From TrEMBL:
This is Chymotrypsin-2-like. It comes from Agrilus planipennis. One of its GO terms (biological process) is proteolysis. Keywords: Disulfide bond, Hydrolase, Protease, Secreted, Serine protease, Signal, Zymogen. It comes from the Eukaryota. One of its GO terms (cellular component) is extracellular region. One of its GO terms (molecular function) is serine-type endopeptidase activity. Its main location: secreted. SMART domains: Tryp_SPc (SM00020).
Length: 264
């Protein structure tokens, strides 16, 4: 997987848990992204919370089922303000499969997300009918205080993003779901990127040897022990480069997530 987006940096203490904090930060110049580099093909039955988000019939991002009628993704994946433009596919290992296709009834972007600043890159969509849970379609568990992810812990990342960062193949769309296992980065490793400001509500995915997220992986999940702890938000221009990919911390926004669901 590889992800192409503005680079924001994160906080994963070398020894402590990541659920600390207070955020505010700016970030690097980059554009929205979409994919997983050097992962392996995956079956959605093993990652049934992963869905594909479409806008005006074009695949735009990954997203995650968090309740029977709600998905969560990155705010920058809200490509339109019109709910009629969106479609969600669940239960698919390829984005050209039918699966369960649902419309979107409500767009619930974090009120502090400004687009030009890369904080608060989180949003929820309410689909127009409940998901039919079964093989390949299930909600993921949200973290609680018992979940502690620290630098070096191995996490799972899934997505339908590109699998190569090759200019000649740049326009080729990956259709398949891929999974990548990778450790969390230390705060120090996150600081290796020039011009970045470390922001507490983010988590860094460490990688080397060409592994990472890329165009199309935005909005997808970072999971540990079956719990959703991160949402793909920003990465390096060169997908799979030896620098951390950035995910929004789910624990940091847990209160906002529960309030948004209960109020809608």
């Amino acid at each position: 997987m590889k992800i192409f987006y503005y680079i924001l940096v994160i906080h994963v203490a070398t020894g402590g848990c990541w659920n600390s904090i207070n955020p505010e930060s700016n970030v690097m110049d980059e554009r929205p992204n979409k994919m997983i580099i050097n992962g392996v093909e995956a079956d959605v039955k093993d990652y049934p919370y992963q869905v594909a988000l479409f806008s005006t019939n074009q695949f735009v991002c990954g997203a995650i089922i968090i309740a029977d009628q709600f998905i969560i993704t990155a705010a920058h994946c809200f490509a339109s303000n019109n709910t009629c433009d969106y479609m969600v596919k669940a239960g698919v290992s390829r984005i050209d499969e039918c699966g369960q296709q649902l419309g979107v009834a409500k767009l619930l972007m974090h009120e502090k997300y400004l687009g030009d600043k890369h904080n608060y890159d989180i949003g929820i969509m309410k689909v127009d009918k409940p998901f039919k849970f079964g093989d390949g379609v299930q909600k993921i568990k949200l973290p609680d205080n018992s979940v502690c992810a620290k630098a070096g812990d191995v996490v799972l990342v899934t997505g339908f993003g590109r699998t190569e960062r090759n200019k000649k193949k740049e326009k080729e769309r990956n259709m398949k779901l891929y999974v990548l296992k990778s450790p969390l980065a230390t705060r120090e490793k996150c600081m290796t990127n020039k011009n970045e400001i470390i922001a507490e509500p983010h988590i860094c995915l460490d990688h080397s040897d060409g592994y990472g997220i890329c165009l199309g992986d935005s909005g997808g999940p970072m999971v540990i022990d079956g719990y959703l702890i991160g949402i793909a938000t920003r990465i390096q221009k060169a997908c799979g480069a030896d620098k951390p990919d950035v995910f929004t911390s789910v624990m940091y926004f847990l209160g906002w997530i529960y309030n948004t669901i209960s109020n809608n």
